[in-house]
């Protein structure tokens, strides 16, 4: 089932159940979606991963406490974690000093208990409108930022074909398995698929399956209730619930413990799971994208991965090619990273020299896109002029084969000219500038190598 555009989500954080229920009824009657938690620790997990547009925060949680220290600690955490969700503080024990501290720590407004419904709703509406305006301004600012890598205009035929295939399945709810070597961009393309799906307005929750210990698998994925086990002092929201109506990205899926694979299989088959410590069956409404650099055929043959789970995960499977396999993207992609890091480090516009471009083309790139990105970041930091030479790339033996045959100097020159023309949309002046030669010199080489100028 596809996700629909949702109304604003208000998170109520209060230790009293009657207060949570009362606020939920008032807010839902106005058309808001409402989530409730009884302690700031539970709110920290939720606000990190789920869609929350506004928080109503009680200031006191321990019995016989009126200082507001717990609420202040949560506001301080929000500042440190750069949580941008607006917070409206609420307490029955207000004083001028507490109100000042609350506002200094970033709360947008303050409501005394017992509250006036009309005023409370007015504040909620006002803060949501201000937050929406802030998001619009951020989007306008982001238009000036470099294009995300997942939206990069790839030059190589193999990547253009892959993107066509991804675009075809992105709008469906089919489970997708992304395979490929480390550094080929699997996380970026999981994001690409999510952004082009009907679930784009709901969360994309990423889970590194290799980082979850076997004994914490159920708690991490399905959540737990308070007291479910010895250290369960607070309820925890699982990743499936955090990704509700959105996408759950299971990175390094091959690392899931064999003993836990049946539990994941059950959710994929039935759409049902139980929170650890609860007997109530929950319904999962998520789209699964998973990724691995492992060979599943070998894992299945060695009985390290369930074959039935594999088939559930890979309704559609896409292999991301190595950087060496998309050679036409190497120099343009280096230029993309050059622009990104020049912007990040406030450097003047820099260019790659012809020798640097040649070195990039001859290198094997065992670390793929991740390595290229690192190389270009380091080069931007080391460069003191306007042009980055091959010496600043520190590629070692740049003549390592990238899967292409060793080229003669003329072959390398022809390839670089061809790429410069593609990158400049066949504008000779721009291509000559990229190559560091004059227009007349480029015209002579275009004629020599029988390449069309496009002008």
Automatic annotation (TrEMBL):
Protein name from the UniProt record: Sigma-54-dependent Fis family transcriptional regulator
Keywords for the protein's UniProt record, in alphabetical order: ATP-binding, DNA-binding, Nucleotide-binding, Phosphoprotein, Transcription, Transcription regulation
SMART domains membership: AAA, REC
Residues of the Sigma-54 factor interaction domain: 152-381
GO molecular function terms noted in the UniProt entry: ATP binding; sequence-specific DNA binding
DNA-binding found in the keyword field: yes
Ranges of residues in domain Response regulatory: 9-128
Alphabetical list of Gene3D superfamilies matching this protein: 1.10.8.60, 3.40.50.2300, Homeodomain-like, P-loop containing nucleotide triphosphate hydrolases
InterPro entries in the cross-refs: AAA+_ATPase, AAA_lid_NorR, CheY-like_superfamily, Homeodomain-like_sf, HTH_Fis, P-loop_NTPase, Sig_transdc_resp-reg_receiver, Sigma_54_int
One BP annotation, GO: regulation of DNA-templated transcription
Keyword Protein transport (UniProt): no
Residues recorded as bearing 4-aspartylphosphate in the entry: 58
Source species of the chain: Neptunicella marina
């Amino acid at each position: 089932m596809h996700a629909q555009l949702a109304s604003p989500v208000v998170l109520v954080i209060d230790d009293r159940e009657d207060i949570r229920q009362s606020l939920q009824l008032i807010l839902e009657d106005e058309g808001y979606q409402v989530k409730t938690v009884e302690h700031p620790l539970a709110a920290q997990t939720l606000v990190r991963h789920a869609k929350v547009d506004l928080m109503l925060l009680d200031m006191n949680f321990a019995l016989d406490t009126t200082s507001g220290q717990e609420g202040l600690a949560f506001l301080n955490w929000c500042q440190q974690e750069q949580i941008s969700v607006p917070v409206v503080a609420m307490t029955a024990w207000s004083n001028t000093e507490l109100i000042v501290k609350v506002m200094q720590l970033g709360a947008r407004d303050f409501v005394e208990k017992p509250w006036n419904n009309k005023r409370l709703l007015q504040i909620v509406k006002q803060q949501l409108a201000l937050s929406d305006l802030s998001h619009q301004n951020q989007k306008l600012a982001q238009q000036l930022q470099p294009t995300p890598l997942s939206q990069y205009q790839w030059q190589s035929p193999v990547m253009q074909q892959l993107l066509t295939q991804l675009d075809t399945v992105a709008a469906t709810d089919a489970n997708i398995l992304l395979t490929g070597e480390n550094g080929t961009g699997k996380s970026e393309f999981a994001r690409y698929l999510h952004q082009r799906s009907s679930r784009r307005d709901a969360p994309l929750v990423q889970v590194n399956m290799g980082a979850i210990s076997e004994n914490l698998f159920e708690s991490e994925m399905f959540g737990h209730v308070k007291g479910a086990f010895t250290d369960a002092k607070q309820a925890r929201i699982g990743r499936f619930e955090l990704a509700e109506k959105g996408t759950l990205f299971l990175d390094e899926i091959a690392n899931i413990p064999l003993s836990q694979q049946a539990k994941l299989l059950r959710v994929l088959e039935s759409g049902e799971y139980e929170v650890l410590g609860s007997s109530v069956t929950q319904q999962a409404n998520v789209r699964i994208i998973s990724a691995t650099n492992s060979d599943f055929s070998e894992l299945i043959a060695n009985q390290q991965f369930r074959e039935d789970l594999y088939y559930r995960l890979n309704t559609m499977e896409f292999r991301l090619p190595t950087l060496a396999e998309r050679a036409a993207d190497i120099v343009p992609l280096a230029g993309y990273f050059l622009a990104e890091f020049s912007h990040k480090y406030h450097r003047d516009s820099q260019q790659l020299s012809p020798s640097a471009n040649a070195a990039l083309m001859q290198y094997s790139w065992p670390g793929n896109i991740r390595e290229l990105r690192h190389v270009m970041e380091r080069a931007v930091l080391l460069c003191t002029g306007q042009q980055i030479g091959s010496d600043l790339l520190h590629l070692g033996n740049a003549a390592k084969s990238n899967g292409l045959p060793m080229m003669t100097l003329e072959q390398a020159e022809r390839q670089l000219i061809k790429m410069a023309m593609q990158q400049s949309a066949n504008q000779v002046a721009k291509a000559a500038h990229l190559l560091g030669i004059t227009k007349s010199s480029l015209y002579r080489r275009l004629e020599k190598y029988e390449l069309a100028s496009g002008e």
